From TrEMBL:
Highest taxon listed in the record's lineage: Bacteria
Organism in which the protein naturally occurs: Acaryochloris marina (strain MBIC 11017)
InterPro entries: DUF4347 (IPR025592)
Keywords associated with the record: Plasmid
Annotated DUF4347 domain residues: 22-143
A Pfam match: DUF4347
Protein name, UniProt field: DUF4347 domain-containing protein
Length: 145
């Protein structure tokens, strides 16, 4: 894989060394290769295939872990939606994916947190509602950065 490190991402990433967490990066993010370099070196980082359903990919990925207290999603999106692989997840289809998303909590600890970076998901009231509903489905605190 060719890596282009010409620009750094514009969002903060702050990880605790002692927290079991997983980082999932969608390759639709500009210069996503940078995230695979030094800031995340040695971390459990996984790349989403942009030609496959991202919700299914994340569930499959999570099923390989147990007791994660933190999930970091780095993806594109807008004021009211996320783009994960081929999936555009928004308020119109969130409930279509509800069963699959609810299963994520099987792999997370009680009080787990999910951080979403790289998009403006909570920039609108609809997006803020979406974040709340997502948190209810997963049984975790969802934060956007």
């Amino acid at each position: 894989m060719t890596t282009n490190l010409s620009t750094e991402p514009t969002f903060p990433i702050n990880f605790s060394q002692s927290t079991p967490y997983l980082v999932v990066v969608d390759t639709a993010i500009d210069n996503y290769q940078y995230l695979l370099a030094s800031p995340l070196l040695g971390r459990e980082v996984h790349i989403l295939d942009i030609e496959t359903d991202g919700i299914a990919q994340i569930k499959t990925l999570l099923s390989q872990f147990e007791g994660l207290s933190c999930l970091h999603l780095i993806c594109k999106g807008g004021p009211d939606h996320l783009e994960l692989g081929t999936t555009r997840l928004d308020v119109d289809n969130l409930w279509d994916y509800a069963d699959e998303i609810c299963q994520w909590q099987d792999y997370l600890t009680e009080g787990a947190e999910i951080f979403i970076y790289g998009c403006e998901l909570a920039a609108s009231r609809l997006g803020q509602a979406f974040v709340s509903w997502l948190g209810l489905l997963i049984g975790a605190t969802v934060r956007t950065e």
